[in-house]
Amino acid sequence: GAPTTGVTAAPTATPAPTPAPTPAGALEIANWPLYIDTDDEDASKHPSLEEFTAETGITVGYYEVIYDNEDFFGTIRPDLAAGKPTPYDLIIVTDWMVAKLAALGYLEPIDVAREMPNFVANAVDTVRDQWFDPGNRYSIPWVGGIVGIGYNIALTGREITSFDDLLDPAFKGRVGMFSEMRDTMCLALLSLGIVPAKATVEDAARAQAKLLEAAQRGQFRGFYGNEYTDELVNGNLAISMAWGGDVFQLALYDNPDLRFVVPRHGGMYYLDNMCIPKNAAHPVDARLFMNHFYQPEVSAKIGEWIGYLSPVKGVPDLIRAHAADARAAGDAETADALLVVADAVDPTPERLANTFPYRDLSLDEERAWNELFNKVLLG
After folding, report:
1. DSSP state letter for 6
2. The pairing of beta strand 220-224 with beta strand 239-243
3. How far apart are CA 358 and CA 95, in angstroms?
4. What is the pLDDT of residue 4?
5. Separation of alpha carbons 145 and 246, rounded Å
6. How does DSSP classify residue 312?
């Protein structure tokens, strides 16, 4: 070819910045019950969502349709498998389910560096780049939580301290367990001194034997998703596996006799995460909401209602500041409640000291664990 020396390349035009994708103006969110701020007068209204709409013009449909990760997945799986949009643009699911959906190719990738500047700036270090989603390629956390035991002190007549209290014949027929295989099997594993993340199928079989013995003598009233909360409030359950934030809210608003404890052998620590199902109809709107949530003021507003561990820096301090404002305005009751909440949402090392993450189950392990657990469900 001709020599290239001395030939000046044509000047390259400066590339135009990529235009920001345009939101569609609609967003459909699927979430769990008791997981967002609610208007005092009208339970169907959520101030944080109304503010998002006022700011962005995006209308939000909000659906409390997730009671159990697997059950919910079952409802959207046909659409995902067929390559069709599900009814939702944003779903909030537990860490291990994020890993499962990502492995199946059922989530839209996100680019946190480019699309989620608030996450980059404000996420607590302990929620970034976790085992279930390295690099936050598909998800960012909504809240953290602890699986432990909720109980009604008026019905148990004593403090509860251990997983084995769930198996105490004194509470026969008034005990709630979780229908989520991982939660129930992992708490049983911990009670046997086995760290869930290292558990083998043989270990799972030991946990199953312990649960099955109790199930066969009629110890459990039922295996529940999020509806266990109704049974705790109405007194059908004296004691139940529980999510800490739920019991916190129920004790504050519904029944002051309710308490929550991390069993002495340990509880489970999890993150519930926002992610976008594959082929979602409004993915730009979903990304805007995910980024919006990571503003401390927005997250604090939600945290004050739900009492779950906040993944956003500065939220506990903001809630303490709101408590000081309430006290200055002469509302001591609200101030006291907010101080309790500020503590509840603060993911301190002390709070997480005796909690453990889930095992990242292979598909074969998951099948084996499910077979074991299904026998317990059938009693």
Report:
1. T
2. unpaired
3. 9
4. 47
5. 10
6. B
CA atoms within 13 A on the CB side of 119: 27
Q: Which two tokens stand for residue 205?
A: 């079989």
Q: What pLDDT, on a 0 to 100 scale, did the predictor assign at position 40?
A: 85
Lookup result for tokens 């909000």: 62
Query: 358 near 182, Cβ under 8 Å?
Result: yes
Overall pTM > 0.70: yes
- Residue 177: C-alpha distances to residues 35, 150, 214, 222 (Å): 20, 11, 11, 6
Q: How far is CA 279 from CA 72, 83, 85, 238, 282, in A?
A: 17, 7, 5, 44, 9
CA distance 106 to 97: 11
Ramachandran bin of 296, using left for φ above 0, alpha for ψ from -120 to 50, beta for the remaining angles? alpha
Give ∠ CA 238-245-42 in degrees, rounded to 5: 100
How many Cα atoms within 13 Å fall on the side-chain side of residue 336?
5
Could you count the other beta carbons within 10 Å of the beta carbon of residue 82? 9
What stretches in the chain show pLDDT beneath 70? 1-19
